[in-house]
Design the sequence.
């Protein structure tokens, strides 16, 4: 594992796989490479053509954190990775809310040639309940009061749509201490999502400056509520291609993702 220093002094840890044009994999809420092996597995499958960066977003894994949080700090983290990789242009891929961070990074002008996202969890209709309007404030309050478990429970029920039985099962699992450790970062992704889980149409101006090829994916057998959001994004962005791929439960496999990314970058 290697590290770089972001603009505000935060240490960002990452692993690389392969040699070639830089591809940066961005995890969504609660995930990081130690618990999401798909980024590393994808990087190994693309090792002949890409240098794939699997990194710990700030506050997770081996990366540090610096208060106060702002989405701009995470964009600076990506800028530091791109600079380390030679200055770009890079390919960005984002899972879930990590895809929304990637969209913001491209809109901010980072040197990116291609952008791919998998199931950004937008709520643009009434197929599922929207996030509570005070979602981020409740997350912050729970963490500030030393109740990270309450923050995780709120995320699991309000954002991830888990049942009470699923949440109780998580409490009893070996994964529960990991979730408690990264609970403060859940609010980061809440801020990244902003109003895009409100049940209203996506903002027309937030990513209007994006002019690079964009690939928007969802799993063919994913939860039905996770399909309208990606479709709405693809309809919003003039340079976007909408592509259902094999996958379910908000994920796909490296065997699926690697060739899709390769084809996208070679053909776009």
Sequence:
């Amino acid at each position: 594992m290697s590290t770089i220093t972001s603009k505000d002094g935060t240490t960002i840890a990452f692993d690389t796989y392969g040699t070639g044009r830089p591809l940066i994999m961005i995890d969504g809420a609660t995930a990081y490479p130690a618990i999401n092996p798909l980024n590393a597995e994808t990087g190994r499958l693309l090792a002949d053509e890409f240098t794939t960066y699997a990194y710990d977003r700030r506050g997770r894994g081996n990366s540090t954190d610096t208060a106060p949080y702002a989405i701009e700090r995470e964009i600076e983290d990506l800028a530091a990775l791109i600079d380390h990789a030679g200055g770009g242009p890079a390919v960005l891929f984002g899972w879930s809310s990590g895809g929304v961070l990637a969209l913001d990074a491209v809109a901010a002008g980072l040197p990116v040639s291609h952008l791919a996202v998998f199931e950004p969890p937008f709520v643009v209709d009434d197929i599922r309940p929207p996030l509570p309007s005070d979602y981020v404030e409740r997350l912050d309050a729970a963490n500030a009061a030393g109740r990270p478990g309450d923050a995780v429970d709120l995320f699991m029920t309000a954002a991830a749509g888990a049942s009470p039985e699923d949440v109780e099962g998580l409490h009893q699992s070996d994964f529960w201490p990991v979730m408690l450790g990264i609970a403060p970062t859940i609010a980061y992704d809440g801020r990244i999502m902003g109003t895009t889980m409100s049940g209203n149409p996506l903002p027309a101006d937030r990513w209007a400056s994006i002019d690079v090829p964009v690939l928007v994916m969802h799993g063919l057998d994913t939860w039905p509520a996770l399909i309208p959001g990606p479709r709405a994004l693809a309809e919003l962005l003039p340079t976007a291609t909408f592509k259902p791929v094999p996958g379910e439960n908000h994920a796909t496999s490296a065997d699926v993702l690697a060739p899709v990314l390769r084809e996208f970058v070679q053909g776009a």
